[in-house]
Design goal:
Blueprint (H helix, E strand, L loop, with lengths): L7 E6 L3 H12 L4 E4 L6 H6 L1 H20 L13 H25 L3 E3 L3 E5 L2 E4 L2 E10 L3 E3 L13 H4 L8 E5 L3 H12 L3 E6 L10 H13 L3 E4 L3 E6 L5 E5 L4 E4 L2 E3 L3 E3 L32 E3 L10 H16 L13 E3 L5 E5 L2 H8 L1 E9 L3 H5 L5 E8 L5 E7 L3 H13 L4 H5 L20 E4 L1 H5 L1
Parallel strand pairs: 1-2, 1-6, 2-3, 6-16, 8-9, 8-14, 9-10
Antiparallel strand pairs: 4-5, 5-6, 7-15, 11-12, 12-13, 17-18, 18-21, 19-20, 19-22, 20-21
Length: 463
């Protein structure tokens, strides 16, 4: 498609991870690029997601570190956490990163519109009262948290709000069972709040390996978090003294000063003009795309959370990069969603790559499962009742490691290295002949010798 008659080769809506990466790479390939961002540069991850959340997780971890230090001979005096200082320091760092993202785009030669953009037709965008024409439009508007449709839901907060609380709540009722709910339960508890977490299902973290789910639930309960499964909020009532009363299924109530809803996210597509332009959306409002990130309109593409496929920052980055290389760099390629490692920054953290045990059995017919649980070396002296869990799932026929899972300190750091091995197709024998680094927790992954169990496909077992 010729660029004649177009103001830009690429117009990007949203300057988050995926949009910024696509814009920069496309500009580097010589494309004329414009980017519109109406809120803040860096998107969810930098401003109200991964980065500030991890900073708050680190803050919460200090509470445990102070306690553990006594077992190693340290005398730890009076401790007090200043919530306002944490939020101010976090805000300063986020503002710095926000500016970096803006500068990255400008330094790459992109035209930047700090305004809302809407699509008028397959090649026309209205931005800041100006109509511009683009050969390709990329939607990278991300997602947003939603509150449940219950009476009084407006009295609660969502993850966006949690980063700007003026003071730490005394008690937090976390509603939800996904990784965001789990992580914020740990954050608030570590920083001194009493925490109750409700989830309507029988066990939280649906979609993760069952050993991760059960082990993490045990560890979180041991750390003092009140987990209640098979429970949910039906309405929220605000009392005259400012306290909230959460009414639960079955008639029970919980008094709290903060209800934190982590009950899902939706793609940020409302009001963008997508449907009027002919772009097909699914029932949640996500842009339906093919393997090349192309929507039902050939000139309109989408990457990241707005497609609601695998909502992780590194996926958005990879999709944006691949798209720019494909469209403007003469290097067509796609982003694989297989064997993507991910972590939950919970207390303790968990991480995973590849297939969960049940999924692997369905995929391969039969798998060998290796599991170990142990007290980390740190806690032999700290006295803290914390145990780690590590697990390998192996395709029985090929002996290829198809899943690795962990709950314990440094899980995310360890799993990143294992993800390389899993993606390369390493076998159990490859793991076995690798010499471990001693003494570390990570060496357990290469010293698992005794099979814990065999798991077979349910349909095959029934036959």
């Amino acid at each position: 498609m010729s660029s004649a008659g177009f103001d830009y080769d690429l117009f990007v809506i949203g300057a988050g991870s995926g949009g910024t990466r696509a814009a920069r790479i496309a500009a580097g390939h010589g494309a004329r690029v414009a980017v519109a961002e109406e809120r803040f540069f860096g998107g969810t991850c930098v401003n109200i997601g991964c980065v500030p959340k991890k900073l708050m997780v680190m803050a919460a971890d200090f509470a445990h570190a102070f306690e553990d230090a006594r077992g190693f001979g340290w005398s730890v005096g009076e401790r007090r956490h200043d919530w306002a200082s944490l939020i101010a320091n976090k805000d300063r760092e986020i503002a710095r990163l926000n500016g970096i993202y803006r500068d990255l785009l400008k330094n790459a030669g992109c035209t930047v519109f700090e305004a809302r953009a809407t699509i008028l037709d397959p090649h026309t965008v209205l931005v800041g009262g100006e109509r511009v024409r683009a050969r390709v439009i990329l939607v990278a508007a991300g997602g947003r948290p939603v509150r449940p449709d219950i009476e009084g839901a407006g009295h609660g907060i969502v993850s966006d709000d949690a980063f700007y609380l003026k003071a730490r709540p005394r008690h937090v009722l976390v509603v939800g069972g996904g990784y965001i709910a789990v992580e914020f339960a740990g954050i608030f508890a570590g920083l001194g709040a009493a925490v109750t977490q409700l989830y309507r299902g029988t066990l939280f973290l649906r979609g993760f390996d069952d050993d991760i789910r059960t082990h993490l639930a045990e560890e979180m309960r041991a750390s003092g978090i009140d987990l209640r499964f098979g429970s949910d909020v039906t309405r929220i009532e605000k009392r005259a003294d400012g306290m909230l009363c959460a009414h639960l299924l079955g008639g029970a109530t919980i008094d709290t000063d903060c209800v934190f809803f982590a009950t899902g996210r939706v793609p940020n597509t409302a009001g963008l003009g997508l449907e009027a332009a002919g772009v097909r959306l699914d029932e949640k409002g996500a842009v339906i795309v093919d393997a090349d990130q192309r929507s039902s309109v050939p000139s309109i593409y989408a990457v990241g959370d707005v497609t609601d496929q695998l909502n992780l920052t590194p996926i958005a980055l990879a999709e944006g990069h691949a798209l720019a290389d494909t469209l403007f760099g003469g290097r067509p390629r796609r982003t694989s969603h297989e064997n993507v490692a991910t972590a939950i920054f919970s207390p303790p953290p968990a991480a995973t790559v590849g297939f969960a045990e049940a999924e692997a059995a369905e995929q391969f017919g039969a798998v060998d499962v290796y599991v170990t649980r142990f007290k980390p070396m740190r806690h032999t002296l700290s006295g803290r009742a914390r145990r780690s869990m590590m697990k390998l799932v192996v395709d029985q026929a090929s002996q290829r490691v198809v899943g690795a899972h962990m709950v314990g300190e440094d899980a995310g750091e360890i799993m990143q290295g294992l993800a390389i091995a899993v993606n390369m197709g390493a076998s159990k024998a490859d793991f076995d002949r690798t010499i471990g680094i001693h003494p570390t927790a990570a060496e357990e992954f290469v010293t698992l010798r005794t099979r814990t169990r065999e798991t077979r496909r349910v349909a095959a077992a029934a036959q």
